[in-house]
Request: fold
Amino acid sequence: MAGSTLASPIADPRTLVQRTKHVSLAMETWRRFRRHKLALVSSFILLTTLVAVALGPLLWPVAINDIDFTARLAGPSLAHPFGTDDLGQDLLARVLYGGRISLAVGLSAMAVAIIVGILIGVIAGVSRGSVDAVLMWLADLFLSLPQLPLLLLLIYLFREPLKQIAGPEVGMFVLIVIVIGGFRWMPVARLVRAQFFSLREKEFVEAARALGASTTRQVMRHILPNSLGPVIVAATIDVAAAILAESTLSFLGLGFPPDIPSWGRLLFDAKDYMDIAPHWVLAPGLSIFLAVVTVNFMGDGLRDALDPRKVL
Amino acid sequence: MSQYIIRRVLIYIPAVIGISVILFTILALAPGDPFEELATNPAVPPEVRAALRAKFGLDDPVWQRYVRWALAMLQGDWGFSFVSRVNVDDLILQRLPTTLVVIGSSQLLALAIAIPVGTFAATRPYSIFDQIASTLAMIGFSMPTFFTGVLFILVFSIYLDWLPFVYRADIAETGWRFYWEHLKQSIMPVTVLGLFQAGGLTRYVRSAALDVIRLDYVTTARSKGIAERSVIVKHVVRNALIPVVTLVMLQLPAVFGGAVVTEQIFRVPGIGSLLISAIQSNDTPVIMSVTFVSAMLVIAFNLLADILYGWLDPRISYR
Reply:
């Protein structure tokens, strides 16, 4: 053994000792995530927005429907930091309230998309042959559907009955979340399936199989947890896409009713006054933009942090 | 080649059937009955209503109704607009060219921005230019089209008063003046849609070019002494564009969504604004047909992408 040169520094027992300092996956991801400065700033802004929106009425105790005709279409001032709308309602309060709706829709639609996507991806990844082929054909079909026209069609056809069943607010919320989420599962399903195809041939899964693990156990304990990296990134981007989709629907006048001021709805109401009250357009518009861009940057940072091939 | 095209066409037939089934299912599941009004009208006896239902085949099994509906759609018999009082196919054919022009020119604008910027960023990865371009691209595709549109109107129509913000189909001018007015009113819708597309495309062109630029044949081309400029333009960009063609076509569903919004903001008389006004006036035949037509257009462009792909990339087998 004496005088033999080690093939790589890792084989040296001394470096091995140095390297055994345990770093959890989450800590390692966080270390890598911090390298993406824009992503870090974005997550900070997003977190602030989330807290502000959640605590809304506590931070800014003005009712969203407090009508004040003496301050109609007033620009930003100390009393109304974001100005007021045509009825003199405070825009800061409305933007904070609208953020709740928009972010809630974004998160719930993402949850729908991820759950459906993982389910279909797992089924396709576990079963080979015709089931897989049919499911992927379905995913391709959904990918080539024109989403916005179909979203509009679905909401047009189903909004009245759902309103009668669950009330105008809840009915609309459920409809929008299901419809938006129902059109976003395809990328997740394909990601999960692709991961399954490569992971199920790996040695550790083979070992589990050799030890007699059932298919369910192989999937739940070994394959699925290892395939979630890209899904987390897709989930982040789905939140942004869902916020955009909801705002688009509301902007076209087919989202929430006027008494629920989501960001898109605020913009829809504001656009007729944009020549005399530009602040009214800017407040919800910038909020949507900021939310979407920060979520997207966060997804970018997560993608870099969770990609094991990328050296950071 | 022609065999390849025929095979691609055959592959898309199940997709067309699938889409029509989805649309029909949505329509069939939707509550509301065309003869609902008659049911509540005391002047119409129930047997007349039953006879009408039987005449229009509403009580037939679902698959029979689907076949009848699909055949009618295929023959261009899309129904009659309740509001405009004309056949739906006339209405759509009237509006379609405007939409195609707006979408087409915005795609060209997006490519004109994305290809040079993406390639230049890929030749200098992680440089200042690359970082600025990537950040701007991210901002570009995070800006919702409706907000960009509103901002453009605010800046260019209201403050600067350079461009009109309502698109007019009936411009009274003639000759050069006519084209100039048309150009002026198209600038904003096309730019809004184009910038949104350009954001995503730039990122994609950059990564496609980065993949190609590391390949051996590029090094070979350089070592033969070919000027860097022609290495990039002739060897890198040409090959990097192959996946971009697919992406442009695959993004079309999203472009249609963007077109609906932009047409609505700038009141462009295309099928997008037709869809919105039909929804506002409960004009179901028009809504169904517009959705159907846009789905078919997406399929047609996917087919086009496949054919272009086979032509651009000789590695694809035609068999």
About this structure: Chain B touches chain A through 48 residues (CB under 8 Å).
